[in-house]
Amino acid sequence: MRILITGGGGFLGQKLAKHLCETGTIAQYDISEITLADIQKPLGISGAVHISRVIADISKAEDAKALFAQKPDIIFHLAAVVSGAAEADLDLGMRVNLGGTINILESARQQGEKTGQPPMVIFASSVAVHGGEAPAVVPDGVELNPQSSYGTQKAIGELLVQDYSRRGLIDGRGLRLPTVTIRPGKANAAASSFMSSIFRDTLQGGNANCPVPREFPVWHSSPRTVVENLIHAAEVPAEAFGYNRNLNLPGRTDTIGEMIEAMTAVAGPDAATRITWESDPAIEKIVSGWRGYFRPEKGLALGFKPDISFEKSVQYFLEDDIVLPQGS
Asked: What confidence category does residue 323 fall into, taking pLDDT thresholds of 50, 70 and 90?
């Protein structure tokens, strides 16, 4: 089984590759090779599985096509311009989030037409496709009504995954990710970046600002659980998805205040004292269009899982990602 991960240099791509290298299998098949592709050369992953690290700009059709030279069986399409950057630069978001997705789907289509075996494409979408006049608790099957350019680009990607799958050109599975927290590494341009920095940075002795009130509800999932759900997506039979190949992944809702209380319960009170509360109208405008409550019955029925608690998410971060100062 050959696997391609776009966005392979990002934190999810790296965690996914590491997990696959450790297990060596996916959907009960042995993994022979994993290709990590990103705009900059991804870091290497040690393990028994052969890893190829490739620099590629998927917004260029020739770069995307070159990623299919080894005929991957499963493509995890994680590459994207994050929400804040896509809102600040419409052309950039359209070029990567929409154009790049089209290039990946077309390359997968061409491979399938040549080999007679459509590859599986697992598309990382976002709950940002919901918003506007959506119900307060979003059920499965509600119309998409994104309130950001990022959400719009992801919604179009979902429709393409759906249509390519309907035509038998690919075996597509679109997963709408909750806000992923606690993200490791440095802050990025995602509007949701603060939802990690107020935990990640303060747990490591730094300061972080929260631009929304304590009462703001967040539909979230830990990186560890998201990786497990991405892998599970490859194990669900195609026919189990039914007519709709895109679904809301399970998550859980907590307010910012409740998440801070959970962090305090796990790691003590010091980190919470390092959080400032200065509003940011640009961030608030984007995240106010997101929904905080979902009822993902289809995802749960198909075996996708939520986190048990945010306390668990904090523990996962401390176990998997925290970088403690030397001598501590």
From this structure: low
DSSP letter assigned to residue 326:
T
DSSP classification of residue 120: E
Of 222, 218, 116, 234, nearest to 173 by C-alpha is 234
Contact call for residues 195 and 208 (beta carbons, < 8 A)? no
Residue 202: left if φ>0, alpha if ψ -120 to 50, beta else—which one?
alpha
CATH 3.40.50.300 for the 2-178+221-248 domain, yes or no: no
The larger pLDDT score, comparing residue 98 to residue 324, is at 98
326 pLDDT higher than 80: no
Residue 327 pLDDT > 70, yes or no? no
Q: Could you tell me the two tokens for 240?
A: 């189990």
Nearest to 310 by CA among 208, 205, 178: 178
Which DSSP string corresponds to 132-195?
TT--SSEETTPPP--SSHHHHHHHHHHHHHHHHHHTTS-EEEEEEEPEE-S--SS--S-TTTHH
Residues marked active site are found at: 150
Query: Closest by alpha carbon to 156, among 86, 226, 234, 94?
Result: 94
Query: Could you tell me the two tokens for 222?
Result: 């830990």
Can you read off the two tokens belonging to residue 8? 């392979």
- Please report where in the chains the tokens 């497990």 appear, as a residue: 228
pLDDT tens figures, 46-74: 888 999 999 999 999 999 999 999 999 99
- Cα(126)–Cα(173) distance, integer angstroms: 13
Q: Are 127 and 139 in contact (CB under 8 A)?
A: no
Other CB atoms within 10 Å distance of the CB of residue 101: 27
Cα-flanking dihedrals φ and ψ of residue 104, to 5°? -65, -45
pTM confidence score:
0.94
How far apart CA 231 and CA 26 sit, in angstroms, is 7
Instruction: Give mean pLDDT, residues 215-238.
Output: 97
Q: How many CB atoms lie within 10 A of CB 277?
A: 12
